[in-house]
Amino acid sequence: MQPWYNSRKAAQIAAFFAMREGGNIPALKVVKLIYLAERSFMDAYEASMLNDQLVSMEHGPVNSITLNRINGSGDDGREWAEFVTDREFHRISVANKVMTEEALDELSRAELKVLGSTWDKFGHMDQWEIRNYTHDHCPEWEDPDFSSHPIPYSRVFKFLGKENPEELDKRIQRERTIDALLNS
């Protein structure tokens, strides 16, 4: 378990996109939307929404811990079950009790704004179009040849054109350390 990772927030982000899709969304599409939202948040705020582990995989860059949660592994499922259903037929759905964005209490206004703009930009695409978009427009992604490779935050910041990408990466690592100490 990563004490610096907020599984409840990740579940709410997945639920946000599922609600926008009409209550049910392909797993690949939501994974790509979450990555693109994380990247957009990093660009706007020089910080991470999820403190996730970013990796290059066959279908593009992903938030690794969040992908594991969507796939049903990594925790006991209680946090996810409150907001999204188990993955079935390569899709996830909004849990019955989540009907409005007001139920997404882990998300700040800034995060909701980024999620909304990510949806506005990419929500019309299907899962394969978004996948292809990440291959072509996220230069931090490198084809892992049917494996996975870590994407350091500094690499994303570098391709976003940020000054001092290494220092921004170190700041996220420090925040992880503080969160781990507070949550242990």
Notes on the structure:
The chain is mainly alpha-helical and 184 residues long. The protein has one domain (7-182). It contains eight helices and five strands, in the order H-E-H-E-E-H-H-E-H-H-E-H-H. The chain has helices at residues 7-20, 27-45, 64-70, 78-81, 109-122, 127-137, 153-159, 165-182; strands at 24-26, 54-57, 60-63, 91-93, 149-150. Helix 1 packs across helix 2 (27-45), helix 2 crosses helix 5 and helix 2 (27-45) packs parallel to helix 6. The radius of gyration is 15 Å and the shape is globular.
Give the tags.
8 helices, mainly alpha, 184 residues, two-stranded antiparallel sheet, 9% strand, three-stranded antiparallel β-sheet, 51% helix
In short:
The protein is mainly α and 184 residues long.
How are the SSEs placed, and which strands pair?
Layout: H1 7-20, E1 24-26, H2 27-45, E2 54-57, E3 60-63, H3 64-70, H4 78-81, E4 91-93, H5 109-122, H6 127-137, E5 149-150, H7 153-159, H8 165-182
Antiparallel strand pairs: 1-4, 2-3, 2-5
Shape: globular
Radius of gyration: 15 Å
Number of helical segments?
8
Residue-averaged pLDDT: 90
- Tally of distinct domains: 1
What order do the strands of the largest sheet run in, or round the barrel if closed? 3-2-5
The low-confidence runs, each spanning 5 or more residues with pLDDT under 50, are none
Biggest beta sheet summary: 3 strands, antiparallel
Helix content: 40-55%
Count of β-strands: 5
Name the structural class.
Answer: mainly alpha
Quaternary structure type = single chain
* N-to-C span: 11 Å
**Elements, N to C (H/E):** HEHEEHHEHHEHH
As a percent range, the share of strand residues is 5-15%
